[in-house]
Amino acid sequence: MKRAVLIAVSLLLAVTLGAAGLVGYRTFLRPPDNPPAEACAKGPGARPRVVAAGASMTQGALGADWVGALRAALPAYEFVNAGVNGDTAADLARRVGTDIVACRPAAVTLLVGTNDVRNAVPVEQYRDTLGEIVTRVRTATGARVALMSLPPLGEDQDTEINRRLTRYNTAVKEVAEQTGADYLPLHERLTDLLRQDGGPLTAYDFGFPLAFWVAAQHHLLGRGWDDIAHTGGRRILVDHVHLTDTGGAVVTDLTTRWLPEAVPLSARG
């Protein structure tokens, strides 16, 4: 009897650890589709190349994969996913050469800064780093660059962290104006959605246990990001940070409207 119980417990533990490992890999370790290391090694192709650079919201393993949605919506372009979990603007600046410039893109989207806000990186430092990234990309590649404003942290705007985030979004807009980059109002569109929905809004309460729990529901149980978020009373953020499919659709829409104008296919002959 004791032997049977021991075997059962061992099997349960093995299954639990295996499931946890699978979730951890798919969420935090698995590279995105068509990362720079693969795309840049191939050299330029027949389609104009678009590099989506940023952190976990761009990588798309925890929350909406809006880069994948763009591939489906705009197959005439090649999309490179240069999102890296946990990156700040300074982290992205360190890999501009390998992950953006080396890909020789026609266009680049930049969505980075959420981790700068969360880590309390001085806004002046963030502004300077973001400007450095845009300048390096434009000088080295001539690519059109689109800067996206940062989504809310938690859906309640009347919180200290979202008041602080406002200053970072002001910096994003200033960098766009100073460098000639295009500005995509992601934050504005998302907050409009929240206002239209009405009802109570959840305050920022992100933590690793919650992130792992929502990832497990998605990767193990197949639940959609919208469904997971709605269970917790959220609309656009699955875990107070990362985008639901509804939130990701806003990024896709903004980019789909911008890109054909920024890099017209007809102009490429």
Descriptive account of the structure:
The chain is α/β, with parallel strands linked by helices. It has a single domain (30-264), classed as SGNH hydrolase (Rossmann fold, 3-Layer(aba) Sandwich), CATH 3.40.50. Helix content is 55%, strand content 9%. It is built from 13 helices and 5 strands. The termini are far apart. It comes from Nonomuraea fuscirosea. This is Lysophospholipase L1-like esterase. Residues 54-206 form the SGNH hydrolase-type esterase domain. It holds the Pfam family Lipase_GDSL_2.
Helix and strand topology:
Blueprint (H helix, E strand, L loop, with lengths): L1 H28 L6 H4 L9 E6 L1 H4 L6 H8 L4 E6 L5 H6 L1 H4 L7 E5 L2 H5 L4 H19 L2 E5 L11 H20 L2 E3 L1 H12 L10 H12 L5 H7 L13 H18 L7
Parallel strand pairs: 1-2, 1-3, 3-4, 4-5
Helix pairs in contact: 1-11, 4-13, 8-9
Pfam family, one: Lipase_GDSL_2
GO molecular function: phosphatidylcholine lysophospholipase activity
Protein name: Lysophospholipase L1-like esterase
Q: Please state the second-level CATH architecture.
A: 3-Layer(aba) Sandwich
Average of pLDDT = 90
The top-level CATH class is Alpha Beta
- Tally the structural domains: 1
Order of helices and strands: HHEHHEHHEHHEHEHHHH
Number of strands: 5
Oligomer: single chain
Morphology call: globular
Largest sheet: 5 strands, parallel
Q: For the largest sheet, list the strands in their spatial order.
A: 2-1-3-4-5
Q: Can you count the helices?
A: 13
Poorly predicted residue ranges: 8-17
Alpha-carbon distance between the termini?
76 Å
Structural class: alpha/beta
Helical coverage, percent range = 40-55%
The name of the CATH topology is: Rossmann fold
Beta fraction of the residues?
5-15%
Rg, please?
A: 20 Å
